[in-house]
Amino acid sequence: MLLNKFDKFLQSVDLAAYREKYRPIKIVEMDLPKEIQAIETLYKVYWIQKRFLSFDDFYQEYFEIHKKQLKDFQEKIGMCPKCFNKGLPARIYRTWASIITQIYAGYVAESVFGGGTVAMSAELDHQGADFQVVYKNKALNYQVKKATFSREVRQEKKSRNKIKGEFIDIKYEVPSEDYFKNPTKKDGEYKLPYLRFKNNKELKRFSNGFVVFTPLPFERKKKEIDLSK
Q: How many domains does the chain have?
């Protein structure tokens, strides 16, 4: 089952090492032209081709595909090649980590609604849906949102008037590692971020720190549709 394979892949990622390596690097933070954004390659590799590459392997593939356009962009903005080549992987990693969570949600949704019910693409993304479920002739346009004020996640504003169907936001929260290492206060009570996460049955956390969706939010929607028919 693809979801189980993706589970194992995500759990194998050394998330702490990537965060330590890339979090301090914020050199290439300007908007990237559409033709060199990583999103289309991410969908192609992880959703369409179902190749679960490590970030390093994905980045090399992305870089080779867009090599000329990236060089043209680097020269256009006047950034030195050394700085650009240091900052770009960190920028792409942040997109990778965000989209990987979204793609995982798509696989979970498909495990609930059935094979062939989920569509995901750069075109859908630009139209306002991170992924779309079509179940019993009803279109559900899902947007995955991180419940945080962090700048580490994409802040794109997506139009909701380009495609038909119901729009549904599903949110995930990623408390810092400290809350899981030390979840209680001095009085023994759970700290609020940990307690909020612990009580949220729509999310689960892998031991490496990846937070992903459980089937619950999709099962609820499927049941609602089934009962309305």
A: 1
